[in-house]
Amino acid sequence: MTKKIKLDIISDIVCPWCIIGYNRLKVAIDELQLNDKIDIEWQPFELNPDMPAEGEPLREHVARKYGASRADSDSARENISKLGAEHNFIFNYSDETKMVNTLDAHILLDLAENLGKQTELKLRLFTAFFTEGKDISLRDVLLAESDAIGIDRAKAEQALADTSNSEKIRAIETQWHSMGVSSVPTVVFNRTSALTGAQSVEAYKQVLSQLLAEQN
């Protein structure tokens, strides 16, 4: 049996480039017919680890963090929405859109990984946040979304209540930071090489093809 190619995808749910990049990566995997030869694990990264519970309006957030004007923000939203649509992902930005804390979401994604449902939950959360406008920092929202993909609610509640899980997530994030990961998405291939940013389908295909050739 051929050893699978391990992909660690380091990302945050509130990062639009992370879902754009994943959708391109998925096309590359599909076109190379590698679905049964790829092992994906999503790794935590918080773009805003100090984000308060109430979140921050997105326009205010990008103005404060990046110095973006309203025109810059509108242009970025239009571009992101267009790129998302290329692979049938809908971004529904509005003046009510908030940047939120994602620590609890990462805790549930860690639980989902152990249950074989991590990618399913990650994609559900991307849709909940960007398409449906849900506040994924709220535990009731997170529990409903995990329940929707078949994760036992009691297990999810227990994971969120266990304070050691937040420490575990922060330790994993620190580990990736120490390895040089400073932006997302970052896709690490077999823990030996990496691509940062939402790369093109062809860029992902090139790396995957090379890794497949080396394994064969």
Short descriptors:
54% helix; 9 helices; Glutaredoxin; 12% strand; single chain; 216 residues; four-stranded mixed sheet
**CATH homology superfamily name:** Glutaredoxin
Number of strands: 6
Oligomer status:
single chain
Strand order across the largest sheet: 2-1-5-6
Per CATH, the class reads Alpha Beta
Structural class: alpha+beta
Helix content: 40-55%
Helical element count?
A: 9
How are helices and strands ordered from N to C?
EHEEHHEHHHHHEEH
Query: What is the average per-residue confidence, as pLDDT, rounded to a whole number?
Result: 96
- Residue fraction in strands: 5-15%
CATH-derived topology: Glutaredoxin
Shape: globular
Report low-confidence residues grouped into runs of 5 or more. Answer: none
Describe the structure.
The mean pLDDT is about 95. The protein is about 55% helix and about 10% strand. By secondary structure, it is α+β, with helices and mostly antiparallel strands. It has helices spanning about 15-30, 60-65, 70-85, 105-115, 120-130, 140-150, 155-160, 165-180, 200-215, and strands spanning about 5-10, 40-45, 55, 100, 185-190, 195. The strands form 2 sheets. It has a 4-stranded mixed β-sheet, with helices on both faces. The protein is globular, with a radius of gyration of 17 Å. Helix 1 crosses helix 9 (about 200-215). It has one domain (about 5-215): Glutaredoxin (3-Layer(aba) Sandwich), CATH 3.40.30. The chain is built from 9 helices and 6 strands, in the order βαββααβαααααββα.
